[in-house]
Amino acid sequence: MSFSIGSIPPPKEPPPLARTLTSSVKEGHYMIYLYDTRYKKFVSAWPELVLAEFKRRSRSASQTCTPSPSGTPSRNTGTRIAVRMRDKYCLVTGQAAVKRARGGNFTGLEVAHIYPLMGVGVKEWIAILSASARAQVPTRQAADRPHNAMLLRADIHSLFDDYQWSIWSDQSIHKIVRFEKSGATVLEQYPTANIRPSSLNTTDPCSMELLRAHLHVALLIHVRGVGKRAVAGFNATLL
Question: How much of the chain, in percent, has pLDDT values that exceed 70?
């Protein structure tokens, strides 16, 4: 489901549903609105039917916490080192690398790509990106850079790749959004992610545009087919 933004004002009657609503929503017709915190107003979001397929991500060398098997630098080594130096710890749990004389021990911490390398150049994936986000990942080489990566604990990284959770950024607050009660339960105690400006002049921070794209895909996957369960390992979305 994609959302095209309109300028129709929200109706005054009946009143909108509270964001904190815990009871079941009654059957009926609803209009979807997004609240723009910058301009302090509601904007309408019109759902459109979209056919898209989002396959499960594959693992890449930059996601691991060890050097390449040959011991020689791979094309991902520079990105992996830069993200480790920039983030220093898991941006969700705060788990830091263990200090040691020969450098930090990052075992259990992995560099996670925000926008998957497998999606570069793929029509269905490109379609979800804004023009500015698309310009950040035109090739696999450009996508394999610090702006498209963050340091996460290994298990949380796997859940991120599986789109069981994502991040909703509202100015300086980066809220963690879980999409199933049974999914990513380890994140119940972590309401926000600690994404901050880069302290290194030579390393770009995480891209907010690409984080929004990740959230968009997670929404597509978990709202598919009026809540129908997707086949494990493959998410085919017809919304």
Answer: 60
d(CA 156, CA 8): 39
pLDDT tens track for 137-148: 999 999 999 999
DSSP sequence for the chain: -EEEEE-PPPPSSSPPPPTT--SPPPSS---EEEEETTTTEEEEEEEE--EEEEEPPPP-GGGSSS--TTSS--TTHHHHHHHHHHH-B-TTT-PBPBP-TTS-B-TTEEEEESS-GGGTT-HHHHTTS-HHHHTT-SSHHHHSSGGGEEEEEHHHHHHHHTTSEEEEEETTEEEEEES-TTSSGGGGG--B------S-TTS----HHHHHHHHHHHHHHHTGGGGPPPPTTEEEEE-
